[in-house]
Amino acid sequence: MQRILGTKLRNAREELGLTQGALAKAVSLSGEFISHLELGKRTPSLETLTALANYLKKDIPYFLKEKEETFDILTRGERIDKKAKKELKKFQKYCEEYIHLEEQTGRRLELAPLYTHISADRMAGEERRRLGLGNEPIRDVFSLFELNGCRIIRQPFPEESKISGVFIFLEAHKAAFTLINSAQSYGRQVFTAVHEYCHYLKDRNSRLIVDNPDIFIDEYLSLYHPREKFARTFAIRFLIPPAKIEEIIEKDIRSKKMSLENVLYLKRYFGVSTADILRTLKELGYLSRTKYEEYQKKVPDLHEETVFGIFEQSILLKKGKKGPIISDRFKSLAIEAYQKKKISPEKLSELINQDKNRLISALGKPK
Prior knowledge:
By secondary structure, this protein is an alpha+beta fold. It has three domains: 2-64, Orthogonal Bundle (434 Repressor (Amino-terminal Domain)), CATH 1.10.260; 70-239, no CATH class; 327-363. The protein is built from 21 helices and four strands. It has helices at 2-15, 20-26, 31-38, 46-55, 60-64, 70-76, 82-105, 120-130, 141-147, 186-202, 218-221, 226-239, 242-253, 260-270, 274-283, 289-296, 300-308, 314-322, 328-339, 345-352, 356-363, and strands at 150-155, 165-170, 175-181, 208-211. A hairpin with a 4-residue loop joins strand 2 and strand 3.
């Protein structure tokens, strides 16, 4: 009970952007007492709990009841078909294995800061600065996000499942996971990853968010929760900083009239989808609505392959359509667990989907 109360008290405080000291002052308690409550080391009196609940705009039962298991909620939805449910069960197993490997190796990740009361544009800039990215393109968002506490797996879903991405925050383990539909184009996978990362930075107290591909279509976006528009704006600004677009156009392209080839050059430079670079150029005034619609109709992906050749990430895309793409960090954890004799070679082979004998030959037997 103390653990549940402490976790929920911290979440409610962070939702309002309060420090422990600010909350303590507001309800006439000490900062140390609030800290002990959140760590599950103290139990508040009914009077104190009432004061906290009133100030944090929560009902008292909110602090006392354990929520339904996150994965039960995820797989119970009416629109989750049998094929999708099977893939989500794989996702659940991956999350459980990942946490277990971290416990076996002692390699736990710190959570990124939780952002509150900030615009999407500003948050994208702040997070880029926090990560030391400047305005340069990000070559591997998946590894970057993993290192910052948002664990990622990519696995294919049938089109009828209507799932582009899933974000889950497991409160008990303080662990965040993102599932990305790898049947999407590589550029869409990247964008989905950043979209879900925004949920991690801003909405993780919601615990579970399932995103439909429709959130990437302008005319449908307004039908969804406002956080989706926020996350999409964040993703565009995080992936394609306007200052870098302007720099490249002024330094290299030297024309405000964007040919389709110019657009595709920028698309490949930033490693995003054609739809995302077209939308960004239109928003920044480099493409008129007429040109924007014209380029959308030209089957730009086919045009790109003809003019520039196959984008190097297409190899990963083909692999992703056949089966899961597990992260390098997950593989690293599994290898370390094997070398520490925490798991058998058979288990290592199963976890990273490699031949057991080849692994033993490469890694040797643990000493």
